[in-house]
Amino acid sequence: KAGVTQTPRYLIKTRGQQVTLSCSPISGHRSVSWYQQTPGQGLQFLFEYFSETQRNKGNFPGRFSGRQFSNSRSEMNVSTLELGDSALYLCASSFPRDWIRSSYNEQFFGPGTRLTVL
Amino acid sequence: AQSVTQPDIHITVSEGASLELRCNYSYGATPYLFWYVQSPGQGLQLLLKYFSGDTLVQGIKGFEAEFKRSQSSFNLRKPSVHWSDAAEYFCAVGAYNNDMRFGAGTRLTVKP
What band does B98 get if pLDDT is binned at 50, 70 and 90? Predict the structure, then answer.
């Protein structure tokens, strides 16, 4: 079974631009979570999508947004980029049983997208 | 909200020596606990996890961890370290809806 894939792997943008990152989960997985990893702040949870709905969100400004498509693929968007947005963005997928009875499920991580903002 | 503390930023051990990486967590309910490893330029790979049951958990690559509720700890151990174990290790606590909180990480260097 193929793992989680993220595209692109590397990206360079300038301040003020916007960027869209893509994540394809493991086949059959319906939940996708996004994380930001920086040397200063470590790994921080951005948001999680399940069945095309955002069901949990971390403490990030509204410039960070995401969505999930019917095939469970997910995108995250960052608008008006700032230098501090330079980071490794990781996507993880998991297979919750269902929305209501979902207990914690193992997350499988992709290799990440390295975003550099100049 | 849940949180994780990894007190050691960097640890150096000799190849063949034993290893223990510390992790303390804070969470009001029964925690879901994880250890992940990250090699340079790579994503995170799950080493082991604890949901319930036996407090000594076996993982991949010869790693194990012990959950101690009284100490709010979930330390990772390996009896004999290999050079290929050099990487960064993250302890994490998971909650409902996949809101996973990570520790700051411990970077492991292995001396020949």
Answer: low
* Cβ-defined contact of A104 to B44 (cutoff 8 Å): no
Among all residues of chain B, which has the CA nearest to that of A56?
A: B97
The pLDDT value recorded for residue A71 is 94
pLDDT at position B34: 92
Residues 6+ apart with CB under 8 A from B27: B2, B3, B93, B95
Beta-carbon count within 10 A of B27 CB: 17
Please tell me the distance in Å from A46's CA to the nearest CA on chain B. 9
* Greatest pairwise CA separation for chain B in angstroms: 42
Question: Per-residue confidence at B1, pLDDT binned at 50, 70, 90?
Answer: confident
Closest Cβ–Cβ partner in A31, A42, A112 for B98 = A31
Hey, is the C-beta of B94 within 8 angstroms of any chain A C-beta? Answer: yes
CA separation (Å) from B72 to A24, A65, A79, B42? 35, 34, 39, 29
Q: What is the pLDDT of residues A92-108, one digit of tens each?
A: 998 865 544 444 677 88
Q: Using alpha carbons, select from A23, A1, A5, A16 the residue that is nearest to residue A73.
A: A23
B 18-57 residues inside an 8 A Cβ radius of A: 32, 36, 41-46, 49, 51
